[in-house]
Amino acid sequence: MAIQGERIRVLNDVEPRADGRYVLYLLQQANRARFNPALELAIEEANRLDLPVIACFGLLDGKSGFPEANARHYAFLLQGLADAKAGLEKRGIGFVMRKCSPAKIAIDLAKEAALLVLDRGYLAIQKGWYREITKAVKTRIVQVEGDVVVPVETASNKHEFAARTLRPKLNRLWDPFIADLRPPKLKHAAKDVTPKGEIDVSDPEAVLAGMSLDRVVGPVKRFIGGETEARKRLKAFLKDGFEGYGNGRNRPEASAASHMSPFLHFGQISPVEIALAVREAKAGDDDDRGAYLEELIVRRELAMNHVFYTEGYDDYDKAVPDWARKTLAEQAEDKRPHAYSEEQLAAGETHDLYWNAAMREMRETGYMHNQLRMYWGKKILEWSPSPKEGFARTLRLNNRYFLDGRDPNSFTNVAWVYGLHDRPWQRRPIFGTVRYQSENSLKKFDAKGYVKAVERLCAAEG
After folding, report:
1. Residues 378 and 398 placed together within one structural domain of the fold
2. Is the pTM of the predicted complex or chain greater than 0.85?
3. Does any domain span residue 388?
4. In whole angstroms, how far apart are CA 386 and each of 334, 356, 381, 407, 433?
5. Co-location of 299 and 321 in the same domain
6. Which residue has the higher pLDDT, 365 or 444?
7. For residues 460 and 10, what is the distance between their CA atoms, to the nearest angstrom?
8. pLDDT tens track for 309-342
C-alpha cells in the first residue's frame, strides 16, 4: 500500500488491546469509503489482528452543533455520509452513527476496540476532539493525515509568509505523495460485532428533518453530497471543461471550474485522487495541469498551514498581520463612499449590480467563483464601518452561506482580504497599503455574462 510514513502519527503508543473485538475508525474529516488512507490503514491493521473494522461518526446537533453550521451544510454532509455508509458496507465494514460529539462516540466505542484510527483536520474544534480522545482512550491510537497532498508538518514547520514561500517546499515534496492507493480486501466482515447506533443515515432527508438547527439557510439543488457525485463531477470536468483551464479559471462566466471545493471540505474526495486524475487527463495541456495543481495543492495547503499554525485564525487581531492592521487603523476614519448594514449585504441590496449577483449566487446556491470571492470580500471591507467589523461580517456571511464555509480556505481567504499572505501596495483611502480591488477588475471577464449565468443558476434553485 502507498500510505507514506509521513502521514502516520501514533498518538498513544501502546500495544493493541488483546481482547478487542474490532478495529475502530473515527470517520470525521475523511467522509468517504474509498481513497481514504486512514480507512485503508484501519483495514490493514484489522487484517493483521484478524478482526473486523467498525467506522463511526458523531453527529453534532442542537446547541452542541458544529459552530455556524445550518441546514444547508448538514444536508450536504448527510448525503455524503449516506453514500459513505453504503460504500463501507459493500466492503464489509460496519458503520455506527450517533447524536454526540466525534470525541464521545470514539471514546465510547474504543472501550471494545483493539486499535483506534483517526483521520486529521486542522481546525481548533478538531484539535480539541483529538486531545479529548487521546486523554481518555487507553488503547493504541494512530492518526493518518489523508486530506492534504503533503502532510502539513512535512511541508513546513512554521507559519508561512505567503504562497511564494510555501510553493517551492511543496514542489520539492509532492511527487511521492501523489500516488495511487490500492484498497486491501478485508478478511473479516463486521456482521455480528457492529455496536448499536442511534441514526440510520440511509435516508438523509429524514435525519435532517429530525435535527434541531438553523433552517433559514436551506439545502441547495446545485450540489448533491457524496463521493459518488464528486467523482462524477470530476470526470465530467476533466473530459469537457478542463481544456483551457489555465486561461479560463479567472473568468466566472466561462464555467472553467471543477466545483470540487464543497466535496473537499467535507472529505468526500481525496485531493490526491484529484491530483492523479488531473495528471492523467487526456484533455488540457501542461499549463492547465500546472494551474489546477497550484490551486489544489499550493493555495489549499497554504490555508491548512495558516489555520494549523495560527491560534485565533478567526480573530481579526490574531489572523491579520501587524502591518495590515496598522495601516487599516490609520485609515479607519476615512469617509466610506457607500455604507451598508450586514442585513443589506446579505440581501444583496447595494448599488453594485455585479457584487449583488455574486452575493445572490452565494446566498441561493452555496457557491461563488474565486475571482468574485476576492472582489466580494474587498467591497465588504470598503463598505463596513471599521476594518474589524468588516472582517467579522465577511466571515459570518462566508460561513453562513457557502457550502465550503467554516473551512481553512475560508478563514484564510477572509484574512487575505485584510492583508494576510500579501504585501503592502500603493496607499489608498480606507485600505491604506492593503491591496485594493476596484470595479475595473470586473473588466477582466464578461461581467454581464456572469450576471446572466447567476440568474439561470438561481432560477434552477426554484
Report:
1. yes
2. yes
3. yes
4. 10, 21, 8, 24, 16
5. no
6. 365
7. 48
8. 999 999 999 999 999 999 999 999 999 999 999 9
